[in-house]
Design goal:
Blueprint (H helix, E strand, L loop, with lengths): L3 E5 L2 E4 L9 E6 L2 E6 L5 E6 L3 H13 L1 H12 L2
Antiparallel strand pairs: 1-2, 2-3, 3-4, 4-5
């Protein structure tokens, strides 16, 4: 199961169930995919095929939606 947290600008932001416990978000689009850590700070974990411009755009979206992502994580995985 991989619940979608939100979609914006052609990107889908989601979690993989039963993955690692460190808080993070995955993003995918037709151009590539990435994973961002949310703790201790927002940081790119890995990515495939995105340009630096796209990675900056995605990071901004993660920053803008950080509270929403954390709430969704807590609801899905528990506190």
């Amino acid at each position: 199961m991989s619940p979608t947290v939100f979609r914006e600008k052609g990107y889908r932001f989601f979690f993989f169930s039963r993955e690692e416990t460190r808080m993070h978000i995955h993003v995918i689009s037709g151009d590539g995919e990435a994973k961002y850590w949310l703790e201790p700070e927002i940081e790119l974990s890995k990515q495939t095929k995105y340009s630096n411009k796209q990675l900056n755009e995605i990071r901004t979206l993660v920053e803008d939606h950080k509270d929403e992502i954390i709430r969704a994580w807590q609801e899905h995985f528990g506190d």
